[in-house]
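Supplementary Methods. Inverse-folding protocol.

Structures were first reduced to a C-alpha coordinate string of length 346. This string, shown here, constituted the complete conditioning input.
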Protein backbone atom coordinates (compact mmCIF):
# COMPACT_ATOMS: atom_id res chain seq x y z
CA UNK A 1 0.00 0.00 0.00
CA UNK A 2 1.47 3.31 -1.10
CA UNK A 3 0.57 6.56 0.68
CA UNK A 4 0.79 9.83 -1.20
CA UNK A 5 1.95 12.86 0.73
CA UNK A 6 1.61 16.28 -0.86
CA UNK A 7 -0.27 19.45 -0.05
CA UNK A 8 -3.03 18.73 -2.57
CA UNK A 9 -3.77 15.42 -0.88
CA UNK A 10 -3.81 17.05 2.55
CA UNK A 11 -6.09 19.84 1.29
CA UNK A 12 -8.57 17.41 -0.25
CA UNK A 13 -8.43 15.24 2.89
CA UNK A 14 -9.35 18.26 5.02
CA UNK A 15 -12.25 19.01 2.67
CA UNK A 16 -13.54 15.46 2.97
CA UNK A 17 -13.15 15.45 6.76
CA UNK A 18 -15.09 18.72 6.92
CA UNK A 19 -17.84 17.15 4.78
CA UNK A 20 -17.95 14.12 7.10
CA UNK A 21 -18.23 16.40 10.13
CA UNK A 22 -21.17 18.28 8.58
CA UNK A 23 -22.94 14.99 7.78
CA UNK A 24 -22.39 13.70 11.35
CA UNK A 25 -23.86 16.94 12.69
CA UNK A 26 -26.82 16.49 10.31
CA UNK A 27 -27.37 12.93 11.58
CA UNK A 28 -27.51 14.19 15.18
CA UNK A 29 -30.13 16.76 14.17
CA UNK A 30 -32.09 14.09 12.29
CA UNK A 31 -32.20 11.87 15.37
CA UNK A 32 -33.46 14.78 17.46
CA UNK A 33 -35.99 15.58 14.73
CA UNK A 34 -37.25 12.00 14.79
CA UNK A 35 -37.58 12.19 18.59
CA UNK A 36 -39.76 15.29 18.18
CA UNK A 37 -41.94 13.94 15.39
CA UNK A 38 -42.15 10.30 16.42
CA UNK A 39 -42.16 7.55 13.79
CA UNK A 40 -41.32 9.30 10.53
CA UNK A 41 -40.24 7.15 7.57
CA UNK A 42 -38.92 10.13 5.64
CA UNK A 43 -36.54 11.09 8.45
CA UNK A 44 -35.47 7.45 8.81
CA UNK A 45 -34.54 7.30 5.12
CA UNK A 46 -32.60 10.57 5.41
CA UNK A 47 -30.60 9.05 8.27
CA UNK A 48 -29.80 6.00 6.10
CA UNK A 49 -28.69 8.26 3.22
CA UNK A 50 -26.53 10.29 5.62
CA UNK A 51 -24.74 7.14 6.79
CA UNK A 52 -24.17 6.14 3.16
CA UNK A 53 -22.60 9.57 2.56
CA UNK A 54 -20.29 9.09 5.54
CA UNK A 55 -19.11 5.64 4.43
CA UNK A 56 -18.67 6.87 0.85
CA UNK A 57 -16.63 9.83 2.06
CA UNK A 58 -14.45 7.57 4.24
CA UNK A 59 -13.80 5.30 1.28
CA UNK A 60 -12.92 8.29 -0.88
CA UNK A 61 -10.57 9.53 1.86
CA UNK A 62 -8.86 6.14 1.77
CA UNK A 63 -8.51 6.41 -2.02
CA UNK A 64 -6.99 9.89 -1.69
CA UNK A 65 -4.20 8.81 0.65
CA UNK A 66 -3.40 5.56 -1.15
CA UNK A 67 -3.56 6.60 -4.82
CA UNK A 68 -2.21 9.28 -7.03
CA UNK A 69 -4.35 12.36 -7.46
CA UNK A 70 -6.64 12.50 -10.42
CA UNK A 71 -8.61 15.54 -11.66
CA UNK A 72 -11.84 13.72 -10.84
CA UNK A 73 -10.77 13.65 -7.18
CA UNK A 74 -11.02 17.45 -6.96
CA UNK A 75 -14.52 17.36 -8.39
CA UNK A 76 -15.62 14.61 -5.98
CA UNK A 77 -14.17 16.44 -2.96
CA UNK A 78 -15.87 19.73 -3.80
CA UNK A 79 -19.15 17.94 -4.60
CA UNK A 80 -18.99 16.05 -1.28
CA UNK A 81 -18.44 19.29 0.65
CA UNK A 82 -21.31 21.06 -1.12
CA UNK A 83 -23.62 18.09 -0.60
CA UNK A 84 -22.73 17.94 3.10
CA UNK A 85 -23.18 21.70 3.47
CA UNK A 86 -26.65 21.71 1.93
CA UNK A 87 -27.60 18.61 3.96
CA UNK A 88 -26.48 20.45 7.12
CA UNK A 89 -28.38 23.58 6.10
CA UNK A 90 -31.60 21.69 5.26
CA UNK A 91 -31.45 19.55 8.41
CA UNK A 92 -30.74 22.51 10.66
CA UNK A 93 -33.59 24.51 9.11
CA UNK A 94 -36.02 21.58 9.41
CA UNK A 95 -35.03 21.07 13.03
CA UNK A 96 -35.59 24.75 13.89
CA UNK A 97 -38.99 24.67 12.18
CA UNK A 98 -39.92 21.52 14.12
CA UNK A 99 -38.85 23.18 17.40
CA UNK A 100 -40.92 26.29 16.63
CA UNK A 101 -43.89 24.12 15.67
CA UNK A 102 -43.59 22.08 18.88
CA UNK A 103 -43.49 25.28 20.92
CA UNK A 104 -46.54 26.62 19.09
CA UNK A 105 -48.44 23.39 19.70
CA UNK A 106 -47.41 23.43 23.37
CA UNK A 107 -48.50 27.06 23.78
CA UNK A 108 -51.78 26.39 21.97
CA UNK A 109 -52.43 23.34 24.16
CA UNK A 110 -51.65 25.35 27.30
CA UNK A 111 -54.09 28.11 26.38
CA UNK A 112 -56.73 25.51 25.47
CA UNK A 113 -56.44 23.79 28.85
CA UNK A 114 -55.64 26.69 31.20
CA UNK A 115 -57.29 29.87 32.38
CA UNK A 116 -55.48 32.93 31.01
CA UNK A 117 -56.16 35.08 34.07
CA UNK A 118 -55.06 32.78 36.90
CA UNK A 119 -52.92 30.24 35.04
CA UNK A 120 -54.96 27.43 36.58
CA UNK A 121 -56.34 24.47 34.61
CA UNK A 122 -59.75 25.23 33.11
CA UNK A 123 -63.03 23.30 33.18
CA UNK A 124 -62.23 21.17 30.13
CA UNK A 125 -58.84 20.05 31.45
CA UNK A 126 -60.25 19.48 34.94
CA UNK A 127 -63.05 17.20 33.71
CA UNK A 128 -60.59 15.14 31.65
CA UNK A 129 -58.25 14.74 34.62
CA UNK A 130 -61.17 14.03 36.95
CA UNK A 131 -62.28 11.03 34.91
CA UNK A 132 -58.71 9.65 34.75
CA UNK A 133 -58.14 10.11 38.49
CA UNK A 134 -61.47 8.52 39.40
CA UNK A 135 -60.70 5.56 37.15
CA UNK A 136 -57.35 4.99 38.86
CA UNK A 137 -58.84 5.51 42.33
CA UNK A 138 -61.59 3.01 41.60
CA UNK A 139 -59.02 0.35 40.71
CA UNK A 140 -56.98 1.09 43.84
CA UNK A 141 -60.00 1.33 46.13
CA UNK A 142 -59.03 4.85 47.22
CA UNK A 143 -61.25 7.84 47.99
CA UNK A 144 -61.09 11.18 46.18
CA UNK A 145 -62.79 14.34 47.41
CA UNK A 146 -64.10 17.14 45.18
CA UNK A 147 -64.43 20.67 46.55
CA UNK A 148 -66.39 23.27 44.61
CA UNK A 149 -65.59 26.78 45.81
CA UNK A 150 -67.71 29.86 45.19
CA UNK A 151 -66.88 33.45 46.20
CA UNK A 152 -70.09 34.79 47.72
CA UNK A 153 -69.59 38.54 47.33
CA UNK A 154 -67.36 38.58 44.28
CA UNK A 155 -70.12 39.60 41.88
CA UNK A 156 -70.98 42.64 44.02
CA UNK A 157 -67.32 43.66 44.29
CA UNK A 158 -66.79 43.15 40.57
CA UNK A 159 -69.79 45.28 39.61
CA UNK A 160 -69.02 47.98 42.19
CA UNK A 161 -65.25 48.38 41.84
CA UNK A 162 -64.76 47.22 38.27
CA UNK A 163 -63.39 44.26 36.38
CA UNK A 164 -59.74 45.15 36.95
CA UNK A 165 -60.17 44.86 40.72
CA UNK A 166 -62.15 41.66 40.21
CA UNK A 167 -59.32 40.15 38.15
CA UNK A 168 -56.78 41.00 40.85
CA UNK A 169 -59.00 39.37 43.48
CA UNK A 170 -59.36 36.19 41.41
CA UNK A 171 -55.59 35.96 40.95
CA UNK A 172 -55.01 36.39 44.69
CA UNK A 173 -57.67 33.83 45.62
CA UNK A 174 -56.23 31.34 43.13
CA UNK A 175 -52.80 31.74 44.70
CA UNK A 176 -54.20 31.31 48.21
CA UNK A 177 -56.03 28.10 47.31
CA UNK A 178 -53.01 26.70 45.49
CA UNK A 179 -50.72 27.40 48.48
CA UNK A 180 -52.98 25.33 50.78
CA UNK A 181 -52.80 22.16 48.65
CA UNK A 182 -50.37 19.31 48.15
CA UNK A 183 -48.61 18.63 44.85
CA UNK A 184 -50.87 15.64 44.21
CA UNK A 185 -54.07 17.71 44.55
CA UNK A 186 -55.61 19.35 41.49
CA UNK A 187 -56.99 22.88 41.35
CA UNK A 188 -58.91 24.52 38.50
CA UNK A 189 -60.90 27.63 37.76
CA UNK A 190 -64.24 26.49 36.35
CA UNK A 191 -65.30 29.97 35.29
CA UNK A 192 -66.38 33.26 36.84
CA UNK A 193 -65.83 33.14 40.61
CA UNK A 194 -65.94 29.36 40.87
CA UNK A 195 -62.97 27.09 41.60
CA UNK A 196 -62.61 23.34 41.99
CA UNK A 197 -60.16 21.31 44.07
CA UNK A 198 -59.65 17.56 43.80
CA UNK A 199 -58.10 16.06 46.93
CA UNK A 200 -56.23 13.02 45.66
CA UNK A 201 -55.84 10.79 47.53
CA UNK A 202 -57.80 11.09 50.78
CA UNK A 203 -55.36 9.71 53.35
CA UNK A 204 -57.62 9.89 56.43
CA UNK A 205 -61.21 10.67 57.36
CA UNK A 206 -60.30 14.03 58.88
CA UNK A 207 -58.09 14.96 55.96
CA UNK A 208 -60.92 16.44 53.87
CA UNK A 209 -62.17 18.54 56.78
CA UNK A 210 -58.67 19.88 57.44
CA UNK A 211 -57.98 20.91 53.85
CA UNK A 212 -61.48 22.36 53.37
CA UNK A 213 -61.15 24.43 56.54
CA UNK A 214 -57.67 25.61 55.55
CA UNK A 215 -58.94 26.74 52.13
CA UNK A 216 -61.93 28.50 53.70
CA UNK A 217 -59.66 30.29 56.22
CA UNK A 218 -57.18 31.33 53.54
CA UNK A 219 -59.85 32.62 51.15
CA UNK A 220 -61.75 34.48 53.87
CA UNK A 221 -58.73 36.43 55.04
CA UNK A 222 -59.49 40.09 54.20
CA UNK A 223 -58.14 41.40 50.90
CA UNK A 224 -56.81 44.93 50.55
CA UNK A 225 -59.14 46.45 47.95
CA UNK A 226 -58.44 50.14 47.29
CA UNK A 227 -56.75 50.36 50.66
CA UNK A 228 -59.64 48.83 52.58
CA UNK A 229 -59.91 45.26 53.96
CA UNK A 230 -62.53 43.32 52.02
CA UNK A 231 -63.92 39.86 52.73
CA UNK A 232 -65.22 38.14 49.61
CA UNK A 233 -66.83 35.29 51.55
CA UNK A 234 -66.72 31.65 50.48
CA UNK A 235 -69.00 28.64 50.14
CA UNK A 236 -67.41 25.21 49.69
CA UNK A 237 -69.38 22.13 48.71
CA UNK A 238 -67.75 18.74 49.25
CA UNK A 239 -68.56 15.37 47.71
CA UNK A 240 -66.51 12.20 48.01
CA UNK A 241 -65.93 9.44 45.45
CA UNK A 242 -67.12 6.68 45.64
CA UNK A 243 -69.02 7.43 48.84
CA UNK A 244 -71.38 9.96 47.25
CA UNK A 245 -71.03 9.36 43.52
CA UNK A 246 -69.93 6.72 41.04
CA UNK A 247 -68.86 9.01 38.16
CA UNK A 248 -67.17 12.34 37.58
CA UNK A 249 -70.33 14.05 36.39
CA UNK A 250 -72.34 12.86 39.38
CA UNK A 251 -69.55 13.92 41.72
CA UNK A 252 -69.51 17.42 40.17
CA UNK A 253 -73.30 17.73 40.49
CA UNK A 254 -73.39 16.65 44.14
CA UNK A 255 -70.49 18.91 45.10
CA UNK A 256 -72.35 21.80 43.42
CA UNK A 257 -75.52 20.96 45.33
CA UNK A 258 -73.53 21.07 48.57
CA UNK A 259 -71.94 24.37 47.58
CA UNK A 260 -75.33 25.98 46.89
CA UNK A 261 -76.69 24.70 50.18
CA UNK A 262 -73.60 26.01 52.01
CA UNK A 263 -74.21 29.45 50.55
CA UNK A 264 -77.90 29.24 51.46
CA UNK A 265 -77.15 28.24 55.06
CA UNK A 266 -74.26 30.66 55.46
CA UNK A 267 -71.75 27.86 56.06
CA UNK A 268 -68.20 28.07 54.75
CA UNK A 269 -67.97 24.29 54.18
CA UNK A 270 -70.73 21.73 53.70
CA UNK A 271 -70.49 18.03 52.88
CA UNK A 272 -73.02 16.41 50.61
CA UNK A 273 -76.01 14.97 52.47
CA UNK A 274 -78.39 12.75 50.55
CA UNK A 275 -81.19 13.50 53.02
CA UNK A 276 -81.32 17.25 52.35
CA UNK A 277 -84.06 18.43 50.04
CA UNK A 278 -81.59 20.02 47.66
CA UNK A 279 -79.82 16.72 47.35
CA UNK A 280 -82.71 14.94 45.68
CA UNK A 281 -81.69 13.05 42.59
CA UNK A 282 -84.22 14.86 40.42
CA UNK A 283 -82.96 18.30 41.44
CA UNK A 284 -79.35 17.28 40.84
CA UNK A 285 -80.19 15.92 37.41
CA UNK A 286 -82.09 19.00 36.29
CA UNK A 287 -79.39 21.40 37.53
CA UNK A 288 -76.72 19.33 35.78
CA UNK A 289 -78.69 19.24 32.53
CA UNK A 290 -79.27 22.98 32.75
CA UNK A 291 -75.55 23.64 33.16
CA UNK A 292 -74.81 21.53 30.10
CA UNK A 293 -77.60 23.32 28.22
CA UNK A 294 -75.89 26.66 28.85
CA UNK A 295 -72.53 25.30 27.69
CA UNK A 296 -74.06 23.76 24.56
CA UNK A 297 -76.18 26.87 23.82
CA UNK A 298 -79.51 25.04 24.03
CA UNK A 299 -81.21 28.12 25.50
CA UNK A 300 -82.74 30.43 22.89
CA UNK A 301 -84.55 33.75 22.92
CA UNK A 302 -87.91 34.30 21.25
CA UNK A 303 -89.30 37.79 20.73
CA UNK A 304 -93.05 38.35 21.14
CA UNK A 305 -94.30 41.60 19.55
CA UNK A 306 -96.38 44.05 21.59
CA UNK A 307 -98.96 45.72 19.31
CA UNK A 308 -101.08 48.79 20.13
CA UNK A 309 -104.69 47.81 19.42
CA UNK A 310 -106.20 51.05 18.10
CA UNK A 311 -103.73 51.45 15.24
CA UNK A 312 -102.04 47.99 15.25
CA UNK A 313 -98.64 49.64 15.55
CA UNK A 314 -95.69 47.64 16.91
CA UNK A 315 -94.55 49.40 20.08
CA UNK A 316 -92.20 46.89 21.71
CA UNK A 317 -91.17 43.25 21.94
CA UNK A 318 -91.00 40.89 24.90
CA UNK A 319 -87.98 38.58 25.18
CA UNK A 320 -88.95 35.01 26.09
CA UNK A 321 -86.37 32.34 26.91
CA UNK A 322 -86.89 28.73 25.87
CA UNK A 323 -84.89 25.58 26.46
CA UNK A 324 -84.50 23.48 23.31
CA UNK A 325 -84.05 20.19 25.12
CA UNK A 326 -82.70 17.36 22.90
CA UNK A 327 -85.09 14.82 24.48
CA UNK A 328 -88.11 16.80 25.74
CA UNK A 329 -88.35 19.43 23.03
CA UNK A 330 -89.07 23.09 23.79
CA UNK A 331 -89.44 23.83 27.51
CA UNK A 332 -90.86 27.10 28.84
CA UNK A 333 -89.24 28.97 31.79
CA UNK A 334 -91.47 27.50 34.51
CA UNK A 335 -89.74 24.13 33.99
CA UNK A 336 -86.20 25.37 34.59
CA UNK A 337 -86.01 28.96 35.90
CA UNK A 338 -86.55 27.89 39.57
CA UNK A 339 -83.61 25.50 39.28
CA UNK A 340 -81.47 28.15 37.61
CA UNK A 341 -82.22 30.53 40.50
CA UNK A 342 -81.41 27.82 43.04
CA UNK A 343 -78.12 26.98 41.32
CA UNK A 344 -77.14 30.66 41.06
CA UNK A 345 -77.04 30.49 37.27
CA UNK A 346 -79.03 33.72 36.87
Amino acid sequence: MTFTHNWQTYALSVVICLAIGLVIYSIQKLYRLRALQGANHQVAWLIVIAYILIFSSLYFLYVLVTHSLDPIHYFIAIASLLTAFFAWLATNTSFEIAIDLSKSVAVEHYHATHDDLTGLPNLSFFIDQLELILHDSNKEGAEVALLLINLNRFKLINETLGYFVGDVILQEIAQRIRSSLRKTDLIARLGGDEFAVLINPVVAQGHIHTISKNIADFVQEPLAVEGKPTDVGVSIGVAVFPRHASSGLELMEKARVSMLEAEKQGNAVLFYDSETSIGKAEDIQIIGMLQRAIQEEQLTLLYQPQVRLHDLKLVSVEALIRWQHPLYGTLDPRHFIPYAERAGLI
